[in-house]
Amino acid sequence: MRRILSNGLFMATLLLVGISSCKKDPVIVKASGVTLDQTTAIVRIGTPLKLTASIAPFDATDKTMTWTTMDATIATVAADGTVTGVKTGSTDITVKTTDGLFTTKCAVTIFPASGSTIELTGNITANITLKSDINYVLNGWVYVKSPATITIEAGTVIKGKTDTKASLVIERGAKIMAEGTAAKPIVFTSAKAAGARAAGDWGGVVLCGNAKINVAGGEAEIEGGLGTKYGGTDDNDNSGTMKYVRIEFAGYAFAPDKEINGLTFGGVGKGTTIDYIQVSFANDDSYEWFGGTVNCKHLIAFSGLDDEFDTDYGFSGFVQYIVGLRDPMIADISKSNGFESDNDGTGSSNIPTTNPRFANVSLYGPLATPTTTINPLFQASMHIRRKSNLEVYNSVFAGWPKGLLMADAKGNAGSGAQVKGCILSGMTDVFSGNTAGEQAFFEDAARINRTIAANADLKVTAAFSLTAPNFLPMTGSPLLTGAATGLPVGLEATDYIGAFKTTDWTTGWANWTPKTTVY
User: Fold this and answer.
1) Which of 190, 136, 131 is nearest to 162 (CA)?
2) CATH number (domain holding residue 57)
3) Cα separation of 454 and 44, whole Å?
């Protein structure tokens, strides 16, 4: 009996051993990769962001991983992938499988907390984006250096700090990408509070490019003491895009006769896009072009001090659909004009010749009526001189002391100057003494120009209102007929005079009361 039991136990043991020896070793599934739910991300200081990593295949045996940051002074990362911003800047967050064979990363940009204030100063040497929910202040001269790009979100407000010469300068080879919308324009304005702002509170916006200018050597230093050079050989140069942008209370006086303008172009090329811009209360010219070939559309000049549109040093771009409106008491000691145009400061024959082509311009001067009290320093709607070949088509100039002035002590307008399909209205002295043959020039039948005695006969809704202007012509307005045809290639054909027909393109984004606007 004992032998039987012993044999039974022996057999059972053998059976168990056999069964145990039939079991397979566990199958190890190795990781074949790792991915992140985001490869680029924006993190706000004070608002951490959790990144989610996934290891492939889904049934990998070991799904543990490690996280690292390239720069812990900019952002840190926790073991669960939570990224915390430390300071503004950019860094990479990397995740890798535990065996270290597979990695991937997320490029993280750290922005300040929404509503915070950031000062911009000195040189910008790397790409930067300005966010619409951050308050930006220009402190002193701020230079965007080549090849950096400054991108500005729609709706962003940038304020110039008073008494610091605050200015934004886009240097040759750099770019500005400032694309607002009609609903969310980008605004450059004074850092002062509503009700306290005034012309000249800060510097302005300056674009410098590599297009041709007519200065000896092909380059020059931009006006205003900024020390930046402009000009080159590339007429197709691209300095970026400005669209739906307002510039208010610019024109800081660095020295006598060295004020910066509201918006300054120095050798800017035609690869640049300029469209829907308003310059208000500039302490010098609202716009000035020093050479270059940039084309512009939909420009507003409002209550500036000196000239509204100043062109020189070989500027040859096409500019269409522009409007100017003057405060009758704001004018400059140098004499304020609608247009001022020179080949250069001495009236030389340097090339390329100043030859911009303007069309569909509406410039409303200080004289709404003959009895309006105005600053005696206002001069002419158009001052073309010193061998400039400025061309103006299908435009209206109303309410200026002088209409057309084509000379000064340093020379007459160039032989290629042209004024065609235009109306001069409500002028005290239409042809400014006719010293350079302005009347014969303007009244040449081939030019189909007209003069109108009273601004009321223009039949424009409310062109001279300084708080709520309406530039649309009414039924029967002379602006709706008599447009010249056969305009230079580069200008759009229109069948009306001035900047407007039935659509007011200033609606929604222009601001006629910036002194009291709360930003």
Assistant:
1) 190
2) 2.60.40.1080
3) 59
Concatenated DSSP letters for 333-361? TT-B-SEEE-SSTT----SS----EEEEE
The distance between the two most distant Cα atoms of the chain, rounded to a whole number of Å, is 146
DSSP-based three-state secondary structure for 119 = strand
- What CATH code is carried by the domain that includes residue 355? 2.160.20
Single out the residue in 71, 96, 111 at which a domain terminates: 111
What is the per-residue pLDDT for 43?
96
Asked if residue 469 has a cis previous peptide bond (ω within 30° of 0), the answer is no
State the sign of the Cα–Cα–Cα–Cα dihedral 427, 422, 306, 328.
positive
The answer to whether 297 and 319 are in contact (CB under 8 A) is yes
CA distances 235 to 61, 95, 191, 230, 277, Å, are 62, 47, 36, 12, 22
Cα–Cα distances in angstroms (integers) from residue 396 to residues 77, 131, 212, 490, in the given order? 63, 39, 30, 20
Regarding whether 194 and 52 lie in a shared domain, the answer is: no
> What pTM was estimated for this model as a whole?
0.90
DSSP 47: B
User: Are the CB atoms for 504 and 491 separated by under 8 Å?
Assistant: no
Per-residue model confidence (pLDDT) at position 433: 67
Residues 140 and 50 in one domain: no
pLDDT at 254 over 80: no
126 and 99 housed in the same domain: no
**Number of domains making up the chain:** 2
Closest CA to 441 of 368, 392, 490, 507: 392
- Residues 142-181: pLDDT tens digits? 999 999 999 999 999 999 999 999 999 999 999 999 999 9
Kindly state whether residues 136 and 154 are assigned to the same domain: yes
- Mean pLDDT over 55-67 rounds to 93
Q: Are 84 and 190 found together in one domain?
A: no
Alpha-carbon gap, residue 261 to 200, rounded angstroms: 9
**C-alpha count within 13 angstroms, C-beta hemisphere, residue 301:** 32
Please indicate, yes or no, if residue 20 is contained in any of the structural domains: no
Asked if residue 299 and residue 259 are part of one domain, the reply reads yes
Q: Are residues 283 and 185 in the same domain?
A: yes
For the stretch 379-430, pLDDT in tens is 999 999 999 999 999 999 999 999 999 999 899 999 999 999 999 999 999 9
**Do 176 and 42 fall into the same domain?**
no
Q: SS3 string of 475-503?
A: CCCHHHCCCCCCCCCCCCCCCCCCCCCCC
pLDDT digit string (tens) for 4-58? Answer: 445 554 454 544 444 444 556 778 999 999 999 999 999 999 999 999 999 999 9
Which of 83, 111, 139 is the last residue in one of the domains? Answer: 111
Rg (CA), the chain: 33
Half-sphere exposure of 218 (CA within 13 A, CB side): 8
Q: Which range marks the domain in which residue 40 is found? A: 33-111
